[in-house]
Amino acid sequence: MDKVLRMSSEKGVVIFSKSSCCLSYAVQVLFQDLGVSPKIHEIDKDPECREIEKALMRLGCSKPVPAVFIGGKLVGSTNEIMSMHLSSSLVPLVKPYLC
Q1: What is the CA radius of gyration of the chain?
Q2: So where does this one cross the membrane (predicted)?
Q3: Does pLDDT of 99 surpass 80?
Q4: Residue 14 bridge partners (DSSP)
């Protein structure tokens, strides 16, 4: 859990992802289109993948990936991010982290 908390605070926007996950890719592209350069952690390439997945679930993720942290706080997964974007509440949240 400590590793995930440390990793989630490395940058303003952090996405825990898997290299083969199309939803993770869609969330990454959305942030890039908004002008945000998120820190991407592809957990399937980490030897502690299972522990990271468990820690993300304990933090409240409904699914381990994608898990999006903004300002070090868990915002959610694909559904939450897309809902925020459609309701125009995502851009103000990421505004401090624009490139």
Answers
A1: 12
A2: none
A3: no
A4: 39, 69
Domain ranges for the chain: 3-95
The token pair at 86 is 């459609």
CATH number of the domain located at residue range(s) 3-95 in this protein: 3.40.30.10
What amino acid is encoded at 54 in this protein? K
Q: Which pairs count as long-range contacts for 59-66, CB under 8 Å and 24+ apart, including other chains?
A: 59/1, 59/4, 64/16, 65/16, 65/17, 65/18, 65/21, 65/23, 65/24, 66/15, 66/16, 66/17, 66/21, 66/23, 66/24, 66/27, 66/28
**Beta 39-42 vs 73-76: how paired, if at all?**
unpaired
Under 8 Å between Cβ of 15 and 66:
yes
DSSP single-letter state for residue 66: S
